[in-house]
Amino acid sequence: MDIPLWLALLTVGYLGVKLIRPPWWLIAVLLLGGFLIADSVLAPVLNGFVK
């Protein structure tokens, strides 16, 4: 069974917010930080760690 990545991330994110209940600012910082790092000069370095 193949599940699309966006659906898996959406499900895990929803369950994480519902069960753990982190503060709203922490969610915003993680989303914004991930977006900014993905488009920075650090992206190739992080890509090496992910693979």
Automatic annotation (TrEMBL):
Keywords recorded for this protein, A-Z: Membrane, Transmembrane, Transmembrane helix
Transmembrane segments: 24-46
Name of the protein: DUF4175 domain-containing protein
Organism: Streptomyces rutgersensis
